[in-house]
């Protein structure tokens, strides 16, 4: 079947514009017409700055894309028109032809693309857990110590059969104790101290530890960008992030053909708004891909929420901690999953940009 581009253009669910050299709206699809409440014909006489404003994020992104003759993505920026409440969107601008005369402008309301901003949206949930965890952990420790102590006393005079039960009580109280440790660790709210971090060193440390332990059955491969600049990070926290993701990957793989791939790259076009007019650049990209069974469909939207787990002995705190740490770094984390291929992508800011503040 020959694709009918007109039809594809009309069917695109997001507002899309084609801009000519003067940044005038040469074409607009129907979602775009709805967004700006003008017909494509009327739009033809309008430029980006006249429509969205001279100093708007969109005009700025278009200018930047022109300047670097490449494509640019801005995450979670507010897009407003004169009489419209601003809506939060991801904005993509990229050249349509080789000499970059025409640009394609895509505006994606984040309701549709929340995937990218999970590490931000999930902070609210994470914060409520932090508050609750401190209280719960404190309240649970004493009774737990009491139960465990009582089981030990009972065990002293118990016969073989009963001792099995007291051992069970002790094992289970230990398990709850470990969970409390993890919740407390999660609630640890010390500020992140940033330094220059070589991501590859940290990834290597995570792989070494994993290979020596829980991931001994898995073949690791790396595709590092050797020129990757340092990240602004806390090496110990980032190690924890990579370990949590690698542990999940290892747990999703059964059998002997397990593979985990670590890839790093530099992607200068990724930015997102951090309040006011400031945007954060997160060009350092780390992808961790496994060939395991994939994230169950029912969980995919919630994996970064606390206590979401598909494992009988999982606490569901691994990924919320990942999300919390990456947010603390001013970065982003997202995941993409299908059976046989699950990728977690982390984006971090540069150490250099930290120095420039
Ligand atoms: N690489 C992966 N492949 C398949 N499923 C995954 C993967 N990573 C995460 N998941 C799913 O997401 C859920 C949440 O992960 P998370 O690390 O937060 O908790 P957990 O692994 O269940 O428990 P914990 O890490 O606290 O021991 C997992 O239970 C699993 O269902
Ligand atoms: Mg986990």
Chain-wise SSE layout:
Blueprint: H1 5-11, E1 16-19, E2 25-28, H2 30-36, H3 40-43, H4 48-52, H5 57-68, E3 72-79, E4 87-95, E5 103-109, H6 118-156, H7 160-187, E6 195-197, H8 199-212, E7 219-223, E8 231-233, H9 235-252, E9 259-266, E10 270-273, E11 279-281, E12 284-290, H10 318-328, E13 332-338, E14 341-348, H11 351-355
Helix pairs in contact: 6-7, 6-10, 8-9, 9-10
The protein binds adenosine-5'-triphosphate and magnesium ion (MG).
Residues 244, 247-248, 318 line the site of magnesium ion (MG).
Describe the structure.
With 357 residues, this protein is of the alpha+beta class. It folds into three domains: 5-112, PAS domain (Beta-Lactamase); 117-187; 195-355, Histidine kinase-like ATPase, C-terminal domain (Heat Shock Protein 90). Helices cover 42% and strands 22% of the residues. It is built from eleven helices and 14 strands. The chain has helices at 5-11, 30-36, 40-43, 48-52, 57-68, 118-156, 160-187, 199-212, 235-252, 318-328, 351-355; strands at residues 16-19, 25-28, 72-79, 87-95, 103-109, 195-197, 219-223, 231-233, 259-266, 270-273, 279-281, 284-290, 332-338, 341-348. It has a seven-stranded mixed β-sheet. It has a five-stranded mixed β-sheet with strand order 7-9-12-14-13. β13 and β14 form a beta hairpin. α8 packs across α9 (235-252) and α9 (235-252) runs antiparallel to α10 (318-328). It is elongated, with a radius of gyration of 25 Å. It starts with a helix and ends with a helix. Adenosine-5'-triphosphate binds at residues 244, 248-249, 252, 290, 292, 294-296, 299, 303, 308-311, 314-319, 342.
